[in-house]
Amino acid sequence: MSRTFSGKQLVKALRRIGYYLDHQKGSHIFMHNLEKNLSVVIPNHKELKKGTLHNILKKVEISIEELKKLL
């Protein structure tokens, strides 16, 4: 992966594909998609760890390339 992503960037990208902010507890942002009935938790950090990012992307079924296009 040539680029790192922040939690804020990931929230912005997920909003563009239909997720909305459900609530936040501390530094964790809970987002939900009503169409897919899917919730995802995003740590609001400056830089997401590689494994954390990949697990979130796998759960919402988008690739790194698609994420780059959304930003």
In short:
The protein is of the alpha+beta class and 71 residues long.
Features:
single chain; 71 residues; alpha+beta; 3-stranded antiparallel sheet; 39% helix; 25% strand
Task: Write a structural description.
There is one protein chain. With 71 residues, the chain is of the alpha+beta class. The chain has helices at 7-16, 50-60, 64-70, and strands at residues 20-25, 28-33, 38-43. Strands 1-2-3 form a 3-stranded antiparallel sheet. β2 and β3 (38-43) form a beta hairpin. The protein is globular and about 30 Å long.
Overall structural class, as computed from helix and strand content, comes to alpha+beta
Tell me which oligomeric state these chains represent. Answer: single chain
The stretches of 5 or more residues where confidence is low (pLDDT under 50) are none
Record field, number of beta strands: 3
* Outline type: globular
Strand proportion, as a percent range, falls in: 25-35%
Helix content: 25-40%
Spell the H/E element sequence.
Answer: HEEEHH
Write the layout of secondary structure elements.
Layout: H1 7-16, E1 20-25, E2 28-33, E3 38-43, H2 50-60, H3 64-70
Antiparallel strand pairs: 1-2, 2-3
